[in-house]
Amino acid sequence: MNGIDTKKSKIFIGLYIFFIFGAAMGDWKVVNFALGALPKIISAGALGLAVIYILWTGNFKHYKALSRFGIMYASIIIAIIFCSILIWILDLQSIKFIMKGVSKISYQLLNIAIVLSAVYLFEEDAAKYTFFGIAAANFVIIGLGAATTGFGGAIKDILSNITSFGANDVIGNSTFIRAIEIHDITFVMGVFIIYFLLFSPGEKYRFLYAGIALFLFVAGLKRIAFLSMLMALAFALFCSVLGTKGKDRALIFTACLIVAFCYYYITIIQQGIFTKFCIEHDIELNGRDRIYDYISQFYEVRPSYRGKGYEFCVQLLKSMRGTKDQVVNINAVHNDILKMYVEMGFWGFLFWILGYYVFQTHWFISRCGEKVAVCFLTINIYMLVTYLTDNTMFYYWSSMVIRMIPMSFFFAPVKEPPLRETDVLRMNRLDKWRYEKRRKDARITRKPRMRLE
After folding, report:
1. In this structure, are residues 285 and 275 in contact, taking their beta carbons and an 8 Å threshold?
2. Run means of pLDDT, 10 residues per run, the chain, 453 residues
3. Is residue 407 part of a domain?
4. Looking at the domain assignment, is residue 288 inside a domain?
């Protein structure tokens, strides 16, 4: 095993893709209803592969870089746990309630360990092999759904869903569409589209992979994800025309703007402005307005609000099930920004969101360079828009992919052709601008502080 290159080993690659595939099959509704999140533990096989390889070879390649990524990612989760424990203690919550909340968020630490294991084994190819496993499961789930209705009927339902842009009556009347409506995987395909189009320049078949991801993205059809995609692509395009210093400023400014926007967003929800706007403009909320209005009585947008602790909102909605207080027949808030504020409180939410967006963005700029930082913030802008009306923040695959992709991109830096002297006078305006921009960037680009050993 000492001579095995895990990046090229068919055994290691095959086993990893199989583990991801098996875990992703747990998102098939038949399995999900029966076993819940249990099948996702199969993905821990990646951690097992990494441990076996380390024990056998003693090869701790890139351990410094990987440990820094791990500490950075884990610190956000640990901060949520400690903030919640403090709130629970002040509220005199039972040990049973505290342990349930801690266990709900602690699984993210396993998620981080799997990400680190995948990048340790496959470096820049980790995201690609993860895509293979998840996409394979998605195709199998579509095939199983089509088997019950026939492929002709399945194609017809998909086209109806697309042309109606996910109308509720189309989804409600189609057994096939309901069967393949796998939220987490569909959102993840949007992240992979961005990754393959913009941040995997060395990948030979990246446009093919982006096309496959686009097909699965459209088949799952989450309407908010289309808006997310447009905003993320627009941000990446904007950053592409900026120089090095411009990127730095734009990234930090955008991260700070996200913090301010989230507080404004919580305020207009608490005051009922958001739901009123959606109703006046015939925007379907599918019961979210009733949830938002109900939860508004449990929080205040002021510095004195200390929060309710992680998982409060879920437990609140569960406790109403079957009672006269039940507002809708779902147990999720469908608004992760609101949920985090209600549960973390004013200051806990502020520290969390500053850490997640501002601190992490600055960390990527200084440690990994501007290009990787743009990758990080682009995919997180995509996910942020979904947080506004959905429960994607701690979805298993979404959490895994948005951590893994910047690491994969860091391990495969963009290799630009050397800048050579040329006759500027013969250039057109666009070529001259590109040439001067590259000359300027070459002089002021700050080298990343983190190195691969």
Report:
1. yes
2. 76 95 88 80 93 88 90 94 89 78 86 96 94 95 79 69 60 63 87 94 90 90 86 93 86 96 93 83 74 86 91 80 63 86 94 95 91 95 92 91 94 60 61 60 56 58
3. no
4. yes
